[in-house]
Amino acid sequence: MANIPNRPKPPVLGRGSYSEALRIGEILRKETVGGALLVAAALVALVWANSPAADSYFALRDLKVGYEPWHLDLSLGAWAADGLLAIFFFLVGLELKREFVAGDLRQPAKAMVPVAAAAGGVVVPALIYAAVNWGSAEALRGWAIPTATDIAFAVAVLAVIGSHLPSALRIFLLTLAVVDDLIAIAIIAVFYTSEIHVGPLLLTLIPVAVYAFLAQKYRRFFGVRPAAAWLILLPIGIVAWALLHASGIHATIAGVVLGFTIPVLRSKASGGPEAGPGLAEILEHRFRPVSAGFAVPVFAFFSAGVAIGGAEGLASLLTDTVALGILAGLVLGKPIGIVGTTWLMSKFTRAELDPSLKWIDLLGMSVLAGIGFTVSLLVAELSFGLGSEHNDHAKVAILAASLLAALLAAVILRARNRHYHRIEAEERVDADRDGIPDVYQQDGSA
């Protein structure tokens, strides 16, 4: 029998396609601005909530606005968590679909490792939190708090400390966070829905179906360049959101569902038959600035404000297993889960780390993934309720863990950034006339 030559192993954190690198780079630039606004909003809320004018902050957060018969008599804090955050989750749905339809993750060999790493980065922090809080049924309700990664916050830190890191690491971080968000969405839908009202839930299917039909047939209704399609789809999406909110399921899930209904075109560069902007690109262009520049910062403003209570408050925080579980889950559990899962994948599958990268690079990115902010704050409120002691301690622990993860990642990645900066200076490759760097053409990924 003829000997069959061994095929080379597909690299973990490989370079990917040039079109994907350009797209991810554009997303990261937008998220960097949003991350800076998010951090600023959280700092303002934290300072205000611990100032002599703290009562005015909590009065503003708890101010009710809305129409009660439609189950929409909500506080401003609840509007931010249930309403504005739906815009963020709509973009998560768009990004997920785009990654698996037109991005590099449409290839199972490339999708396998980051998806598995994201799962490890969810499971291990949850297990650590559960181990710390074992025996307390009330505290265990927060097991999902340390499972999320905040992409906007993490990218803002990465932009400051990692300007010369390989694009593969940046793509890995974004992919990790997107899959992480998908898992968090599933957790919220399954474990944090206490009561379901069947009538509104069934009615939700009507606007979702209309929305999906118009989205799929958008060229027929809105022309070749449907710049105004969002003006028609937005009111329908709001109706779907309101009905899902009335059903008892967290309303942010509506954003993800609607995002999944938007068609994604595969360009010729990615092996598809069509080129040019599609509805997914147009809606992302319209709503990403709203999400990063307004929705998420406003949510952070209303969610991050917590009265620490001085030295006595910090002392009670350090004795609360909820806070300790969150700190351990985000700072230790995330890197252990991500690096450990990736290492197991490299040992027991055909995947291996790209030769141009080192395991210390992956460790730095995994520590950076311990920045859990937006979704972690949301899950904390769903777990313990707004204003409860556990929720206040959870908020402080999320802020502290995110800051500690950012500092630790900065120590690791700054050193690696200098290393890759030297490599760029020594081995700079000029682009050809077509504008595509030679390195992408040599391995056929352009």
Automatic annotation (TrEMBL):
<feature type="transmembrane region" description="Helical">
    <location>
        <begin position="290"/>
        <end position="310"/>
    </location>
</feature>
<protein>
    <recommendedName>
        <fullName>Na(+)/H(+) antiporter NhaA</fullName>
    </recommendedName>
</protein>
<feature type="transmembrane region" description="Helical">
    <location>
        <begin position="227"/>
        <end position="244"/>
    </location>
</feature>
<keyword id="KW-0813">Transport</keyword>
<feature type="transmembrane region" description="Helical">
    <location>
        <begin position="198"/>
        <end position="215"/>
    </location>
</feature>
<dbReference type="GO" id="GO:0015385">
    <property type="term" value="F:sodium:proton antiporter activity"/>
</dbReference>
<feature type="transmembrane region" description="Helical">
    <location>
        <begin position="357"/>
        <end position="384"/>
    </location>
</feature>
<feature type="transmembrane region" description="Helical">
    <location>
        <begin position="322"/>
        <end position="345"/>
    </location>
</feature>
<dbReference type="Pfam" id="PF06965">
    <property type="entry name" value="Na_H_antiport_1"/>
</dbReference>
<keyword id="KW-0050">Antiport</keyword>
<dbReference type="GO" id="GO:0006885">
    <property type="term" value="P:regulation of pH"/>
</dbReference>
<feature type="transmembrane region" description="Helical">
    <location>
        <begin position="70"/>
        <end position="91"/>
    </location>
</feature>
<keyword id="KW-0406">Ion transport</keyword>
<keyword id="KW-1133">Transmembrane helix</keyword>
<keyword id="KW-0472">Membrane</keyword>
<feature type="transmembrane region" description="Helical">
    <location>
        <begin position="396"/>
        <end position="413"/>
    </location>
</feature>
<dbReference type="GO" id="GO:0005886">
    <property type="term" value="C:plasma membrane"/>
</dbReference>
<feature type="transmembrane region" description="Helical">
    <location>
        <begin position="250"/>
        <end position="269"/>
    </location>
</feature>
<comment type="similarity">
    <text>Belongs to the NhaA Na(+)/H(+) (TC 2.A.33) antiporter family.</text>
</comment>
<keyword id="KW-0739">Sodium transport</keyword>
<feature type="transmembrane region" description="Helical">
    <location>
        <begin position="32"/>
        <end position="50"/>
    </location>
</feature>
<keyword id="KW-0915">Sodium</keyword>
<feature type="transmembrane region" description="Helical">
    <location>
        <begin position="111"/>
        <end position="131"/>
    </location>
</feature>
<comment type="function">
    <text>Na(+)/H(+) antiporter that extrudes sodium in exchange for external protons.</text>
</comment>
<dbReference type="InterPro" id="IPR023171">
    <property type="entry name" value="Na/H_antiporter_dom_sf"/>
</dbReference>
<feature type="transmembrane region" description="Helical">
    <location>
        <begin position="143"/>
        <end position="161"/>
    </location>
</feature>
<feature type="transmembrane region" description="Helical">
    <location>
        <begin position="168"/>
        <end position="192"/>
    </location>
</feature>
<keyword id="KW-1003">Cell membrane</keyword>
<dbReference type="InterPro" id="IPR004670">
    <property type="entry name" value="NhaA"/>
</dbReference>
<keyword id="KW-0812">Transmembrane</keyword>
